[in-house]
Amino acid sequence: MQILIPFAALLALPATQAIVLPDGTGRLPALGWNSWNAYYCDIDEAKILTAAHAIIDLGLKDAGYEYVNIDDCWSIKDSRDNVTNQIIPDPLKFPTGIKGIADEIHDLGLKVGIYGSAGTKTCGGFPAQIGNEYLDAATFAAWEIDYLKYDNCYVPDNWTDIYSACVPDQWQTYGPYINGTCPSASSGQDEISAPPGYDWSTSLSAIRYGIMSDALLAQNRTILYSLCNWGHAAVQTWGGSTGSSWRITGDITPWWARVAEILNEGSFLSNYANFWGHNDLDMLHIGNGNLTLAESRSHFAFWAAMKSPIIIGTDLLKLDSEKVAILKNKALLAFHQDDKFGKPAEPYKWGVNPNWTFNATHPAEYWSGASKAGTLVLAMNTLEKKAWREIKFSEVPQLKKLGASKDSFEVRDIWSGKYLGCVRGSIGRWVGSHDTVGFVVGKKCRG
Ligand SMILES: *[C@@H]1O[C@H](CO)[C@@H](O)[C@H](O)[C@H]1NC(C)=O
Ligand SMILES: *[C@@H]1O[C@H](CO)[C@@H](O)[C@H](O)[C@H]1NC(C)=O
Ligand SMILES: *[C@@H]1O[C@H](CO)[C@@H](O)[C@H](O)[C@H]1NC(C)=O
Ligand SMILES: *[C@@H]1O[C@H](CO)[C@@H](O)[C@H](O)[C@H]1NC(C)=O
Ligand SMILES: *[C@@H]1O[C@H](CO)[C@@H](O)[C@H](O)[C@H]1NC(C)=O
Ligand SMILES: *[C@@H]1O[C@H](CO)[C@@H](O)[C@H](O)[C@H]1NC(C)=O
Ligand SMILES: *[C@@H]1O[C@H](CO)[C@@H](O)[C@H](O)[C@H]1NC(C)=O
What we know:
By secondary structure, the chain is of the alpha/beta class. The protein folds into 2 domains: 14-342, TIM Barrel (Alpha-Beta Barrel), CATH 3.20.20.70; 347-444, Immunoglobulin-like, CATH 2.60.40.1180. Helices cover 24% and strands 20% of the residues. The chain has 13 helices and 18 strands. The chain has an 8-stranded parallel β-sheet. A 6-stranded antiparallel β-sheet has the order 11-12-13-18-15-16. A two-stranded antiparallel sheet has the order 3-4. The termini are far apart. The protein binds 2-acetamido-2-deoxy-beta-D-glucopyranose (7 copies). One 2-acetamido-2-deoxy-beta-D-glucopyranose (NAG) binds next to loops. One 2-acetamido-2-deoxy-beta-D-glucopyranose is lined by residues 131, 156, 158-159, 204.
């Protein structure tokens, strides 16, 4: 018997203190590259350094990308150092150690990330951190690591949460969501629901992730802490007092259905994100699987609009120039990295479905968000064929306030970068299947 907590109950934001790091680290969502979606376990120094050089050569560093993150499978698998108990980098994959490659990456003016797990082993079965958090954090600091992605595999029984939160990812198990709300009790499920108003920051998951947070903060080094507990234990309610970003779902896969599914889940969580704390929609798959150019545009546009960390996950040497251009899109990166406006964009109209419908294949299509450059507006086509999408200024909350019904505004197209002049009332386009159009609606025009 299970009674899942209603989504609305999660909207009560606890008054927790955000993690504020020196030099603005983690204030804005991270930009970088990670080895997993490109190479999975098959990594070595050459591949990581090739990516680091490509970040520079392709102009991605100039566009703001800075982290080069080594994911799972970097260490010796079956043991730690029998004297110091430290994790040992695999000498075949990383002949100069993690310190050696970190030095090379730093010499390029980039930062370096490493991967661990809040369990007995990493997801790939390598030594992980539980019980050794302070030792490993000190080792990472000694290697001059700048970023830790902290996964959720091999959690010991005595660290398993008593209650299970409603995880939107598992909607297929639990039944359809209504208005972003978990389905009500149904019989035959074996997990125990949390009592109404349960404070998930007291859960074993929050404590488990909190130990590594404390361990990193105890180091004489700024290490961005990226929580990867797959959206469990209502992490959005405590992630911001534990780290700089938190994954809201299980892993992304390189096809549209999964991108749309994650996009839908993220659309209900914008209240939790602001400066210093970000919903992580998972690493990009642009360049992988069967994502089309249109789907790649939507993937990037919404990861930027929702202010998720943007961590590229492909072999950059194989990426075609059109997709590189997507990753360098000026208007979207400016929105993502805006230092005055921390809130992500939000849907103002769902489109295909009624407002507030939780739907994995047809998420919200019409979005807006405030920025220094003006109001970012996006319109997506979730259908399988071309369709007309019209952004009516009177429906956009930020423009309504400015008197959208009578005035015209300076408009720029986010993809072409072209200034479209003064536009009054609305802007409409034919939009290809799974594609997204977007505009920055700036100042009111005179006269
Ligand atoms: C400790 O590890 C070293 C190699 O790293 C090995 O030569 C030595 O035999 C090990 N000692 C024990 C007690 O396992
Ligand atoms: C689980 O067991 C380990 C090993 O005995 C112990 O260190 C840890 O504190 C326990 N965790 C909890 C939540 O009690
Ligand atoms: C859905 O939830 C939102 C947010 O709580 C609320 O504003 C809206 O009125 C709800 N819509 C319906 C149809 O219940
Ligand atoms: C902390 O690190 C800085 C910069 O590397 C160094 O100058 C300083 O001495 C360190 N402080 C301590 C207490 O180790
Ligand atoms: C893309 O790949 C996925 C997984 O193999 C598949 O389910 C989907 O149908 C493919 N989509 C297209 C458009 O080929
Ligand atoms: C959804 O919201 C938009 C913008 O406020 C509004 O124009 C539209 O009528 C709403 N649709 C529904 C079905 O409530
Ligand atoms: C999602 O929305 C589409 C379009 O309205 C609809 O056909 C589909 O049945 C919905 N899916 C679910 C699981 O409700």
